[in-house]
Amino acid sequence: MQAERLEDGAFLVCCRMDSTAEDVRATLTGINELLQGQEMAPPQDSNWELVIAEVLNNIVEHAYEDRAGGDILLRLVFSPDRLSVEFTDFGQPMPSGTPPSGAPVDLDVSVEELPEGGFGWFLIRSLSENLDYHHDGESNRLRLSIPLR
User: Which of 48, 61, 67, 75 has its CA 20 to 30 A from that of 124?
Assistant: First the structure.
């Protein structure tokens, strides 16, 4: 994991992780440790970590089909009011070449009828902006930004 202060004052964090849930958790812990005491650290009530975790877990589960050994590259730029993020992986592309719509799930059903999944993309789309996905034949690249204030 690498971190540096950029000329404009933003805080850049870059890391590479393996396609496992354990590596995702360790990376998020490491990022939080790097942010301790940083001027550009997001406010405590920010949802940035939820969005990052959801995207990374989707990459592990879907792009790499829960197989270890796949590289995930993460680039975060923390500015005073925004976090810009780029995720790169070399797994399977998103179905139909686009991120899921993230339509809200109907919660007005019995507990037994609640879907197992389907909440992640709704959260990602609700809490982020400027979502852009591209698959170039070798890699998947997802970019988004998260308002912090």
Answer: 67
* Helix segments in 18-140, DSSP class H: 21-35, 48-58, 120-127
Single pTM value for the model: 0.88
Residue 63: name the closest of 14, 99, 16, 31 by CA.
99
pLDDT in tens, 28-80: 999 999 999 888 788 888 899 999 999 999 999 999 999 999 999 999 999 99
63 by Cβ neighbours in 10 Å (0-12 / 13-18 / 19+) ranks as: buried
Q: What is the spatial distance between Cα 139 and Cα 63, in angstroms, rounded to a whole number?
A: 10
Distance CA 113, CA 11 (A): 44
The one-letter code for the residue type at 140 is N
- β-partners of residue 72 are 17, 89
| Lookup result for tokens 């680039």 | 75
Tokens of 133: 């996905």
